[in-house]
Amino acid sequence: PKITYVAADRAEQTLDLPLGTTVMRGALTNDVDGIVGQCGGYAQCGTCHVFVDPDSLDKPGEMEPDEDDMLDFTACPREPNSRLSCQLEVTEALDGLIVHLPERQT
Ligand code: FES
């Protein structure tokens, strides 16, 4: 499934990620700047914050309460389209997802 990351400076990178990884891990293993992922993917650090593009808002599933809670503590304030990319598991349903990266994660 293809995931597009748009940096704060609008530079775009599209990756074809394997099923079962996460949007956070896909970024880290492919050197996408702008995602930190300090806690390793446990919804405990908020440094994998992304904004889901309005055109692909229907792709990710509902968030769990721990993600919702952690989103209140991100470096850049949350928006209605905020998600923690470590909680976005790559599935076929995610193909075509576009995420925007915040200006900072810490
Ligand atoms: Fe820590 Fe996502 S990697 S909250």
UniProtKB/TrEMBL annotation:
Domain of life: Bacteria
Domain 2Fe-2S ferredoxin-type: 1-105
A Gene Ontology BP annotation from the UniProt entry: P450-containing electron transport chain
Sample GO molecular function, one term: electron transfer activity
Gene3D superfamilies: 3.10.20.30
Pfam families for this protein: Fer2
Similarity comment text for this entry: Belongs to the adrenodoxin/putidaredoxin family.
Protein name: (2Fe-2S)-binding protein
High-level lineage: Bacteria, Bacillati, Actinomycetota, Actinomycetes, Kitasatosporales
